[in-house]
Design brief:
Number of strands: 5
Helix content: 40-55%
Bound molecules: shikimate-3-phosphate
Distance between the termini: 9 Å
Shape: globular
Length: 167
């Protein structure tokens, strides 16, 4: 596999789990932009947002995209906000096929309501916050090469669909 498989989508859409499974089945390297950011900063995403702010995190994320988009045959699991910078998507598309894992705000909310590590959802009304961000970002996610339905609790459907497209 020459091209990268790039996964984008909202927090909780299943990118990391699907990326790991694709990596196993294709025997390909898996890279998470969030994990790389944490390793570089020696801090969690939450701490980076808190101590340095979102703008700093976005710059770091873009620098990471610049590097990882040069990889070949790699599964790239992107943070949910990667699409906020136009250049990121352009770079990722240059060497990869971009898949948008689409899930509704309600499904996302049910999946992540008990999690505490996502700084953008630490709001008094997380579902409202998800709906608003989801609406803002949908036109950006829609720029992916393919949209994959990721509403089901099982990752098997999306994994098989991506593998078939990559054949
Ligand atoms: C973000 C998504 C997170 C992480 C950060 C910001 C976003 O990644 O990069 O909290 O703006 O949607 P996941 O999508 O992997 O949760």
């Amino acid at each position: 596999m020459e091209k990268n498989i790039v996964l984008i989508g909202f927090m909780g859409s299943g990118k990391s789990m699907i990326a790991r499974e694709l990596g196993k089945r294709l025997k390909a390297k898996v890279i998470s932009t969030d994990l790389l950011a944490e390793a570089r900063e020696k801090a969690t995403i939450h701490e980076i947002f808190r101590s340095k702010g979102e703008a700093y995190f976005r710059d770091l994320e873009s620098a990471i995209i610049k590097e990882v988009s040069l990889c070949k045959g790699t599964i790239i699991d992107c943070g949910g906000g990667v699409v906020l910078c136009k250049e990121n998507l352009k770079l990722l598309k240059a060497n990869g096929i971009v898949f948008y894992l689409q899930a509704t705000p309600q499904v996302i909310y049910e999946r992540i309501k008990h999690e505490t590590h996502r700084p953008l959802l630490k709001a008094s009304d997380p579902l409202g916050c998800i709906k608003e961000l989801h609406q803002q970002r949908t036109p950006l996610y829609d720029q992916a090469d393919f949209t994959i339905d990721a509403n089901d609790a099982s990752i098997e459907g999306p994994v098989v669909e991506i593998l078939n497209i990559m054949k």
